[in-house]
């Protein structure tokens, strides 16, 4: 048992700094990186006698934790986009409800830029940043949204711009 503990301690001293640094470059946060590296060692220790290549196990485990972290961050970004979009709609009580309902019926790819640009009054650059898209894509989506709205409204509104 002493030799296993000594081997684990030596592995920790040799690998932990590199592993934590690797995680840091991937998640851009010191605390999260150290948590991931420590969790990788905890999982290794639980399987110590069954793992043939401990360093490889540590890096694969850390990679899985990084991937889980990225997924969580993306879910949080999507939730923030939804909240921002919903708040933009709520702040526009004076707008024509029929137009607002038509905007809400747009496909999400077109709806979110339209809501942020027209209802939240954000510039194209900020909409692009919030939605994680290029400015040109946002401009094209806004154009497509206007064309769809124009077609749905027919002659009821003279100009949509």
Q: What distinguishing features does this structure have?
A:
single chain; mainly alpha; 79% helix; rod-shaped
Describe the structure.
This protein starts with a helix and ends in an 8-residue tail after the last helix. The radius of gyration is 25 Å and the shape is rod-shaped. It has helices at residues 2-27, 30-46, 54-90, 97-104, 108-119, 124-131, 135-153. It is an all-alpha fold and 161 residues long. The protein has seven helices and no strands.
Q: Over all CA atoms, what is the radius of gyration? A: 25 Å
Query: Got a strand count?
Result: 0
Q: What would you call the shape?
A: rod-shaped
User: What composes the largest sheet?
Assistant: none
Distance between the termini: 75 Å
Helix content estimate: over 70%
Low-confidence stretches: none
In what range is the share of β-strand residues? under 5%
Order of helices and strands: HHHHHHH
Compose a concise summary of this entry.
This protein has 7 helices and no strands.
Q: How would you summarize the topology of this molecule?
A:
Layout: H1 2-27, H2 30-46, H3 54-90, H4 97-104, H5 108-119, H6 124-131, H7 135-153
